[in-house]
Structure formats: structure tokens, C-alpha cells
Design brief:
By secondary structure, the chain is mainly alpha-helical. It is built from eight helices and no strands. α2 runs parallel beside α5.
């Protein structure tokens, strides 16, 4: 054990900072490696997110072209119906939160409050989460975990629709 340093600062290389194999980090070629790593990571995230954006754009286009022109007018006639429809659509579609903005933006004839209801419901309650909840919690707990956010979101977005 003579080879291991006695003082923790000697083991870390710098007083209080652990050395994880990055001698001279931030100097010379290490800075270049960090920049390359940053750019590779950013490109990977962009491509990963881009796939969700393309799926979201495809779903939005499909909803706008496949649904008959007058079929959604029924829901747009009432603030409560439009908010409720967009909440139900968010739960059923279960799309990634990176792509839901495209779908919400495609419903330009709906009020901003209904679009907001879609955006705020999707990440909190969707079919995937409900099935996960059912596998983890009792039915009573799932009922609370699903109904409370849905009711709160409906009421708050309806108030927003009525105020603006």
C-alpha cells in the first residue's frame, strides 16, 4: 500500500477534484476533443428529436386530411367541447412531447386554450402511462393519478378559453 497516496488531495490530483483520466482537461487537444464530443452529442440529439418531429408532422397532416372538413366543426363550436376533444386526443394519441406541438399547431381552427389543453395533457396522462400505472399501482390510485390531472387541466383550460 506504499504506492497509494495517504492524503485524499494527492489521490485526486488536485485539491478536492477527482481525476477521472482527464489529465490537463481543458488544455490543448482535450479542449478540441470536448468540442467534438459536444458537437457529436448535439447532432445525435437533433437527429433523435428530428424523428419525433417528423412523426408529429405526419400525424398532424393525417388528422387534417383524413378527417372530413365539417367533422371537427362540432367540437369547435363550444369551449368545453373543444378543450375536452383536445384532451381526449392527447390521451389517445400518446405522442412524444417533442412532437405534440406540431399536432397542436395543426389545429389552427381550435382556440389557443384547446391547443394548450392538448399540450399539457399529453406528457401527464396518456395510454402508455395509464398502462404503466395499472401495472404498478392499485386501480384506486390509478383513478386518482389519471382523473385529477385531467380534471384540473380541463377546468383551467376552460377558464382560459372563457376569459380570453
Amino acid at each position: 500500500m506504499k504506492d497509494s497516496p495517504e492524503h485524499p488531495a494527492e489521490r485526486t490530483g488536485h485539491a478536492g477534484h477527482a481525476d477521472h483520466g482527464s489529465e490537463g482537461a481543458g488544455h490543448g487537444s482535450k479542449t478540441g476533443e470536448r468540442i467534438v464530443h459536444l458537437l457529436v452529442h448535439a447532432a445525435d440529439e437533433f437527429l433523435s428529436m428530428g424523428a419525433y418531429l417528423i412523426v408529429g408532422a405526419a400525424v398532424a397532416g393525417l388528422l387534417q386530411t383524413a378527417a372530413p372538413a365539417g367533422s371537427l366543426a362540432f367540437f369547435r363550436g363550444s369551449a368545453a367541447l373543444s378543450v375536452g376533444f383536445m384532451i381526449a386526443l392527447a390521451v389517445v394519441l400518446s405522442i412524444c412531447s417533442e412532437a405534440d406541438a406540431f399536432v397542436a399547431a395543426s389545429f389552427i381552427r381550435f382556440t389557443p386554450a384547446a391547443q394548450l389543453a392538448f399540450l399539457t395533457t399529453g406528457p401527464v396522462v396518456d395510454i402508455k402511462l395509464i398502462s404503466m400505472f395499472l401495472g404498478t399501482f392499485r386501480r384506486e390510485a390509478v383513478l386518482v393519478l389519471v382523473s385529477v390531472p385531467l380534471i384540473m387541466n380541463f377546468v383551467l383550460c376552460l377558464l382560459l378559453a372563457l376569459l380570453f
